[in-house]
Amino acid sequence: MVADDITPSHQRLNKHDGSTANPSDTMAQSYQEDGQKQFYIFGHNISHSLSPTLHNAGFKAVNLPHHYQIHESENVDESVETIIQRPDFGGASVTFPHKLQIGKLLDSVSLRGESIGAINTVVVSAVSGKRVLHGDNTDWIGIKRCVEKSGARDFAYSSALVLGAGGAARAACYAVQTLGFGELIVVNRTLRKAEDLASRFPDLKTRSFTTLEEAAAAKDLQIRLIVACVPADDLGAEKIPSGLFSGTGDGVLVEMAYRPQVTGMMTVAGRYPGWKVYRGVDVLEEQAYAQFELWTGREAPVEAMRSAMQAKLKEKI
């Protein structure tokens, strides 16, 4: 079933909140109070992005003059470097395929960003009067909050399956670790990439496979979370083994793709009433609130941002 508990589990960022930060990893927060700043989403094939709708609604709701826009490029090139060096650059969201590349242009990266190995947020801050470009990751927060909204659970004896090995999959694995799962399963068509990703999380028991069929056939699995981090077009419902969902009475699917509205993975999960489904737009929404707070130092205006996104989605249907 597609989750109907759509009220965001928004929590204000603070350094003592284990879901967002910890005392040993102080976030470089940007307090954009003076003058209009320009914010961007950097990536490729992102003309459909809902991020401008979310963030511009947020700025408007709290009376900030900032503007958020799309900047497309095939890679992190000179155009991106030029933008982030401008005095009016306020910050950026970073999406595929730039999450693994943007770090080369930054002055610092959060401990979470380093652990994940992917950056989806650029924050401009001042340290001792010097302008600093700081990288962080909020994708994992979006995933974690969706799972938490599904209800309190003890995952210590459960497995989580992450499909893919790119930047989003890295954030998913980090979320799995923070949620307290006993085992991480990584599935990727290139086994070496799956194994390399799994090895980044030595505190977890891990297994790696090249196909979902192999994972479903493995012994002693209690899969209660699946995070799909591959293009939805790559995976029709007929390619998804039902054994991934039938082994436990309940679970959570987080589908990171937000087009089409119903993916093959969502179709199969929907056949099992105990499984709750969260869409890519749910993750996008939750991680955007965290980005907004990093950029502005203000609590995200959740209702205004969410209402704007829902209105935009209705236009696209």
UniProtKB/TrEMBL annotation:
Region described as Disordered: 1-29
Biased composition (Polar residues): 19-29
Molecular function (Gene Ontology), one example: shikimate 3-dehydrogenase (NADP+) activity
Matching Pfam families: SDH_C, Shikimate_DH, Shikimate_dh_N
A Gene Ontology term for the protein's cellular component: cytoplasm
Sequence ranges assigned to domain SDH C-terminal in this UniProt record: 280-310
Superkingdom to which the source organism belongs: Eukaryota
Domain annotation Shikimate dehydrogenase substrate binding N-terminal: ranges: 41-122
Occurrences of domain Quinate/shikimate 5-dehydrogenase/glutamyl-tRNA reductase (ranges): 154-223
One record GO biological process: shikimate metabolic process
PANTHER family in UniProt: BIFUNCTIONAL 3-DEHYDROQUINATE DEHYDRATASE_SHIKIMATE DEHYDROGENASE, CHLOROPLASTIC (PTHR21089:SF1), SHIKIMATE DEHYDROGENASE (PTHR21089)
Protein name (record): Shikimate-5-dehydrogenase
Lineage: Eukaryota, Fungi, Dikarya, Ascomycota, Pezizomycotina
